[in-house]
Specification:
The protein is α+β, with helices and mostly antiparallel strands and about 325 residues long. About 20% of the residues lie in helices and about 30% in strands. The protein has a single domain, classed as Fumarylacetoacetase-like, C-terminal domain (Fumarylacetoacetate hydrolase, domain 2). The chain is built from eight helices and 20 strands. Strands 1, 2, 3, 4, 5, 6, 7, 11, 12, 15 and 18 form an eleven-stranded mixed beta sheet that branches. It starts with a strand and ends in a 5-residue tail after the last strand. About 0% of the residues have low confidence.
């Protein structure tokens, strides 16, 4: 079995520890996720299982991805989500890759701050992969060696400002506002024997108690090993980097199909089309509003892998000019 890890604050200091039975077995203090991961094997092997523990309610849970060098994202990587976004459901010939700002990362229980100018705020539950070692050149990743490159998995929510992302055609900008990437509460360090489980995890997201997203990670079109192999041919990866693997269907955004989009492009200016898009989306009650509470969970059916429950509340940035 793998190991459930918490990054937490206790007595104004940041610590790392193993989570068991609603308690934390302290492992030590490390300034970054990268530093912790590079020492994880020794720390876990030498942990004093008879030592003192902390009740979870006595600590403040922090994001298990701290100071990330990169937050790399896959877009439209589930067939049903591709369909609701106006794309063909088939696996595309290319893996859509973009980024979120590292400063968008926040904890599993922090508020999500909606900028005043954002009217179409959306959620995207995603399985996050936490890179376990530095990769500075092409590697061939498969299910047999996946845990050599992926230390563990986390819950992540790719919060998105659709009225920035779509009209401005800027995915990075529309998804990178501060607090737009809740991560955690825990990091699950995968054992080599659990590699297959990464393809059979149940993803669930609720807004105000209503189930909005429910899918299985096995439905991903580009699988983790394939994505890591491709990324290694493009960029350096570092221990502690976060890769978001795409969201399933159930988001608030719904766009017209390709035929409608093509026809409107022939007879309307781009600005007119975008004005119509925003106006029509404002009639959709599924977009997030102030006070909405988002809960998210990822676990397997047997319960041997459970990444905890993420819960965030939407608030407005009242200081924005």
């Amino acid at each position: 079995m793998g190991t459930l890890i918490a990054h937490y604050e206790f007595q104004r200091q940041h610590h790392w520890g193993i989570v068991q039975d609603n308690q934390i077995l302290p492992l030590g203090q490390f300034s970054t996720t990268s530093e912790f991961l590079k020492n994880r094997a020794t720390l876990i092997a030498s942990a004093n299982t008879d030592g003192p523990r902390l009740p979870l309610e006595q600590v403040k849970i922090l994001s298990p991805v701290s100071n990330p060098r990169q937050v790399i994202c896959q877009g439209v990587n589930y067939a049903d989500h591709r369909a609701e976004g106006g794309y063909d459901k088939q696996k595309p010939p290319y893996n859509m890759i973009f980024a979120k700002a590292p400063s968008s990362v926040t904890s599993a229980y922090s508020d999500i701050t909606r900028p005043k100018h954002v009217r179409l705020l959306d959620y995207e539950l995603e399985l996050g992969l936490v890179v376990g070692q530095d990769v500075t050149g092409p590697v061939q990743v498969n299910d047999g060696n996946l845990t050599d490159y992926v230390a563990g998995i986390v819950i992540a929510n790719d919060i998105s400002a659709r009225d920035v992302q779509i009209p401005q055609e800027q995915w990075d900008k529309g998804k990178s506002y501060r607090t737009f990437c809740p991560v955690g509460p825990y990091l699950y360090l995968l054992s080599r024997q659990e590699t297959a489980d990464i393809h059979n995890l149940n993803l669930s997201l609720w807004v105000n108690g209503e189930l909005r997203q429910s899918a299985n990670s096995g439905d991903m079109l580009y699988k983790p090993a394939e994505t890591l192999t491709e990324l290694s041919t493009i960029m350096d990866l570092h221990a502690g980097d976060l890769i978001l693997t795409g969201t399933p269907a159930g988001v608030a955004l719904h766009t017209p199909g390709p035929l409608v989009q093509k026809l409107t492009s022939l007879f309307m200016s781009r600005q007119k089309r975008m004005d119509i898009f925003v106006k029509s989306q404002l009639q959709n009650p599924r977009y997030l509003a102030n006070g909405d509470v988002i809960r998210a969970a990822i676990r397997n059916s047997s319960g041997t892998i459970d990444l905890g429950m993420q819960q965030n509340t939407i608030v407005t940035n009242e200081e924005e000019s």
